[in-house]
Design brief:
- The protein is α+β, with helices and mostly antiparallel strands.
- The protein is built from 25 helices and 17 strands.
- The strands form five sheets. Strands 5-6-7-9-8 form a five-stranded mixed β-barrel. Strands 1, 2, 3 and 4 form a four-stranded mixed sheet that branches. It has a three-stranded mixed sheet with strand order 10-11-12, sandwiched between helices.
- The longest helix is centred in the N-terminal third of the chain and has 28 residues, at 114-141.
């Protein structure tokens, strides 16, 4: 290639271009363009870099042409003698030339010298490398999400370089399965999760530890998964040790767990073998979060589940003897269950839950004894009936009291009267305290404000409307942040956890900003409208059609109905043919 010149044999040029293109799996035209550029560079070195020299190699015949180009410009715009030609001089050469035309002067062929040949070789090789990298990137960027096979080329510091045939991929140390050792020339399968364009060529990142690798393996081994009859809704892995997958069947006649296990475990064992013996728990998926969490903690048996929707945390109560099984070795079982369900799982034993319940029961009993001036038996009865606060007793419907054995209207009325008196005294004390703390009366006029809330604000130094307006929801409700050991810990806000939702806290602050004059009242309406729009379910075609017909009214003409349905692109006859809601069907 280093001896190629303009005087080289035509067929030899085409044969070299074809051979290089086939070897690098790139288009032959790219190689020919690289040769043209190399010839142009060599010619400029011979005739001068300031000239506009162009080369052309015919892709069919191999004929080579080299010429210098000058652009015709108006006399007053003439600047560069080597690349431009005055219009008056051009007219002398060819009367048909106009400003903007190009005048081509063919140059004689020449032989490359040693330096020019080496330069040409570098130009061609660089062009070919660039084209090869672009081909590799375009070939693999659309294969992200697939399992691909290759041969181990080398192992460097725990990173496995895989020969994919016409490209190289890398399994980084943290993308491999622990304690899995590969030797040169070993066959390996991995999940392609990223292709990045780099200066030195595309980087193809592979993984054998990604949960999606297991999902794709099941799709290969289980036809029902590949066809979409069974869906793998979630997957969590501790690579090389244990994994959990959540599966659900779209066909009620097919057991998703049994289908994934296969006859005598053949299907799941094929996946386990590929993953170096990683144990796999196949969990039936359920749209009910509590049920799915119970399933995910298998083989441990769960006694009770308490969900915290706002924090996406769940408290799971298990028998004392089931606690080690629920946690698993080094917390593996509960950790995988948490990853699988997307909920933070807090495990509690039945004995600890019972102790906590007894403690809370005793605290409520003492509160009711103090607030209602009642004896311990009555206070315990109220606590056992589910009453948690004095407010519930004060404002619950009287008939709810009467249903309690031994209670009548007089007892209910007396208890509620005592509860209201206690709340009034407490409110008066809190109101006096908030004044001592400097909380302004304007703050008390905010919606959702109570004397006890005002005291909490005052204790935190929040005294004016501007102070309240400057808060953020986390300041009120609390937040979660990483603790010293890396695990998230709860940081209390102005109110105790669960006393106010984050959405309500945001609305409370927005009202304070309106009252303080920071924003216009319309801002609240816009926020509510945006929230409603985000939460609104998308209507089906049938619902949109019925809604449109409802807006037209019963007196609408047939033409108006047809026009509305046509605008919605809704076929009423098709719906009737499919069959619809019996209640919505017209009756004879």
């Amino acid at each position: 290639m280093s001896t190629i010149g303009v005087s080289a044999n035509r067929l030899e040029i085409l044969q070299i271009a074809k051979a290089v293109a086939e070897e690098k799996a790139i288009d032959q035209s790219i190689v020919i363009e690289a040769m043209q550029e190399a010839i142009e560079k060599a010619a400029k070195a011979k005739y001068g870099q300031e000239h506009d020299i162009r080369a052309k190699i015919d892709a069919t015949t191999g004929e080579q042409t080299l010429w210098r180009v000058q652009t015709v410009v108006a006399d007053e715009e003439f600047e560069d003698e080597s690349k431009q030609l005055r219009l008056t001089e051009a007219k002398k050469l060819d009367a048909t030339l106009e400003a903007g035309d190009e005048l081509k002067e063919e140059l004689p062929p020449f032989d490359f010298g040693r330096v020019a040949a080496q330069t040409a070789k570098q130009v061609i090789m660089q062009k070919v490398r660039d084209a090869e990298r672009e081909r590799q990137y375009n070939e693999y960027k659309d294969r992200v999400g697939e399992i691909i096979s290759g041969v181990v080329k080398r192992v460097e510091y725990g990173h496995v370089i895989v020969d994919l045939g016409r490209a190289e991929g890398i399994i980084r140390r943290n993308d491999g399965i622990p304690r899995e050792n590969f030797q040169t020339n070993d066959r390996v399968r991995a999940y392609l999760y990223k292709v990045s364009r780099e200066t030195k060529g595309p980087q193809i990142f592979l993984s054998r530890a990604a949960p999606d690798f297991m999902v794709r393996l099941f799709a290969q081994e289980v036809p029902e998964v590949y066809e979409g009859v069974i869906e793998i809704k979630a997957c969590a892995r501790d690579p090389g040790s244990r994994a959990k997958i959540g599966v659900i069947s779209n066909d009620s006649s097919i057991d998703p767990v049994g289908a994934c296990v296969g006859m005598r475990g053949a299907r799941v064992q094929a996946v386990v073998g590929e993953l170096s013996g990683e144990k796999i728990d196949i969990i039936p998926w359920n749209y009910d979060d509590a049920t799915f969490i119970v399933n995910a903690l298998q083989p441990a048996e769960v006694s009770k589940v308490v969900l915290d929707e706002d924090e996406r945390r769940v408290e799971v109560v298990v028998a004392d003897d089931q606690f080690p099984l629920a946690i698993g070795r080094r917390g593996q079982n509960v950790r995988l269950a948490s990853q699988l369900t997307g909920w933070q799982i807090d495990l509690v034993t039945e004995s600890a839950d019972s102790e906590r319940y007894q403690r809370e029961f005793q605290e409520r009993t003492e509160l009711f004894m103090k607030a209602l001036d009642a004896d311990e038996t009555l206070a315990q009865l109220l606590a056992s009936e589910g009453f948690e606060t004095v407010e519930e007793i004060a404002y619950v419907a009287p008939e709810d009291f009467i249903t309690i054995e031994g209670f009548d209207e007089d007892v209910a009325e007396e208890l509620q009267e005592r509860a209201r008196e206690f709340l009034d005294r407490l409110a008066a004390e809190n109101d006096a305290k908030r004044k001592e703390l400097g909380v302004e009366d304007a703050v008390m006029e905010l919606e959702s404000m109570t004397p006890s809330f005002a005291v909490r604000l005052g204790e935190e130094g929040v005294q004016t409307l501007d102070d309240v307006a400057g808060l953020v929801p986390d300041d009120i409700t609390g937040w979660r942040e990483p603790g010293p050991d890396g695990k998230p810990v709860w940081v209390e806000g102005i109110l105790k956890k669960g006393e106010m939702r984050k959405d309500d806290a945001q609305m409370f602050i927005m009202r304070a900003r309106v009252a303080a004059g920071w924003i216009e009242p319309d801002a609240i309406e816009q926020m509510l409208a945006q929230k409603a729009e985000e939460e609104a379910p998308e209507l089906t075609e049938e619902e949109r059609a019925l809604l449109a017909l409802g807006e037209l009214g019963s007196n609408a003409s047939d033409e108006a109905v047809d026009e509305a349905l046509e605008e919605l692109e809704f076929d009423l006859d098709a719906l009737a043919a499919e069959g619809g809601d019996d209640e919505a069907a017209p009756k004879d």
